[in-house]
C-alpha cells in the first residue's frame, strides 16, 4: 500500500518513541538552530512529567507527527516566555491543579503534511481539555510567512490579513482552522529567526468548562511567577597587594556581600587582575605583563569556581589576559554554582591593547542560557559596537554584562553612553562596572575611573532616566538591583516606541557571519 493510502492513527507516547520524535522534530523544524531542538533527556523529562498529554501520529509503524502539552496555572494578563511555561523544556512547571492546557509543541513530518494529521493531534489535545475540566488551551504560533512582509506592514496587520483570508501563513492558517483565537501578537516570547521572533498568542476556550467543579477539585491555583533576578556590580578598588591571597580576600568580600543581599549574578571589572602586578619586582612591558598575568589563569579560575560553588551564585569574573596557542586574549569568564566555567573573549580590541599588550580579538559571540536568565558579556569596547548587541538581543539575550576598564572620565562616558543606548534601543538590561583607585607598580601607574550602573530601557514601566541603580563615582562600592525579566517582552510590544518591532527589514538586514553560540548553562 502506498504512502498516500496508508492509515494514520494517533496514540500516547511511549518512552521508546523518543528517538523517532527527535527525527520528526528535526525534519519539521529544519530552519531551527540545533540548540533549539530538544535533546533525548528533555523528552524523557517531558514524558515523565505528564505522559497523558503527549501524543504521536503513526503511519505504517513510523512516527510522522507528535504533540506535547502540559497543564499550567497562569495569570491571563501576564506575558510568559516559553522557558517560563515549560521549565526550560523540562515540563517541571506541570501543575495537575492548573486550569490551562499549554500546547507546547506540535509537528508533522514534511513528507506527511496536508493529510489531516495536525487535526488528529489537536483532537487528542481537546480530549484533555474535557477530561481534566480545563478552562482553555493556549499556544504560541509561528509566523514564518511574515518575513516576506516585514517593514511593509506590521506583524499585527499581517495577522489580520491572514485572518481575513487575504494572505496565507502555513502555521497561523492551521491554528485558525482548528479553532484557536489570536489574542495578541508578541515579540521575543520565542526565539524563531524564520518568524523574526514574532509569535501569536493563541487561545482556544473550552465550552464545557465547569468553574464550580474546578474550584472544588483544585482549591488553590498557584500561578507561574514572573521571573526576577537580583544583580550586583562590584565597583572594585585597585589597591596594592602583596600576594594572590590578598586578591582572594578582596574578591570574597564582594562575593560575600552579594550573597548577603541574595543576589543571583555578580559582576567584576575588566582587567581587575592588574592588581597582581603590584607585587612584581621586575619592570615589565605591557606585553610581558600580560604574559605574567596569564600565568595566574589557573589560580584565577580555581578561586572563582570555589566562590561560585560556595555561595551558590553566578559570577562574571571580570576579564583577564589568557594565553592560547601562543596568542593573548582578553577573556571574560562566567562561573556557575555547579562549578562550570564559560568564556567570552573581547571581540574589539583598542589600539593600546593591540599595540602595547599584544591582545588578539576573539571570534565567537555567545549567549549563556542560565536557568535564571539569558545573559551575554560584552567586554568594555565591545559595547560601543551596536551591531553585536542587536544580534545578541535578536538571539534572545535579556541582560548584557559589561566589565570595563577606564582611566578617566571621557573614556568612562564613552562606555556609559553606549551602554545606555544599547539598553534603550534593544529593550534589554545592561549591567556595567569598572575599577576605582590609583595603583603604582614597577611596570607603570594605573589610573581608574568608574561609576558602576544598572541600566534599563527608557519608557513608562522603567525608571525615568533609564537607571535602575548606580554607584557613587570613584569609590569602592556595590550596586544591587532587582530586574523583572518577564516584563521585557511585554514592554517591547506595548511601550511608547517599539524599536524591535519597527525595524525596516525591507530596507536593511543584520546577520551574523558565524552563528551565535547559545550555551545551556547549569
TrEMBL record:
It holds the Pfam family CN_hydrolase. InterPro entries: Acyl_CoA_acyltransferase, C-N_Hydrolase, C-N_Hydrolase_sf, GNAT_dom, UPF0012_CS. Coiled coil: none annotated. Residues 8-209 form the N-acetyltransferase domain. GO terms for molecular function: acyltransferase activity, transferring groups other than amino-acyl groups; hydrolase activity. The keyword Heme does not apply. The keyword Hydrolase applies. Residues 229-485 form the CN hydrolase domain. Keywords: Hydrolase. PANTHER family: HYDROLASE YHCX (PTHR23088:SF50), NITRILASE-RELATED (PTHR23088). Belongs to the carbon-nitrogen hydrolase superfamily. NIT1/NIT2 family. This is Predicted amidohydrolase. It comes from Desulfobacula phenolica.
